[in-house]
From TrEMBL:
Similarity remark: Belongs to the disease resistance NB-LRR family.
Gene Ontology terms: biological process: defense response
Keyword hit for Methyltransferase: no
Recorded superkingdom: Eukaryota
Record-given protein name: Disease resistance N-terminal domain-containing protein
Length: 95
């Protein structure tokens, strides 16, 4: 009786663990989706920074915000480049 109970409990535990793991990985976007979204966001930021630099802004608060936006754009480009170059190396274990 103990053997049967142990088998049933271990089977239920294994199935529930498998279910939880599958649900978790289904919600995670793929690296390609992350790269595409990051690329779109960085392109939008790049456009906004370029447009703002074309105007003659004298407000110090706006200039500080533009500086922070420009730094975020540079970080975004850096991360995008780093992920783009590393993605082919990591692909075999992701598949």
């Amino acid at each position: 009786m103990d053997v049967l109970l142990s088998a049933v409990v271990s089977d239920l535990f294994g199935r529930s663990a498998s279910f939880v793991i599958n649900r978790y990985f289904q919600r995670q976007p793929g690296i390609d989706m992350i790269l595409q979204r990051l690329e779109r966001v960085v392109l939008r930021i790049d456009t906004v920074v370029e447009e703002a630099e074309g105007r003659h802004i004298t407000n110090q608060g706006m200039l500080r915000q533009l500086k922070m936006l420009r730094q975020g754009m540079y970080r975004g480009h850096y991360v995008l480049d780093a992920l783009t170059f590393q993605a082919p190396l990591k692909t075999p274990w992701l598949v």
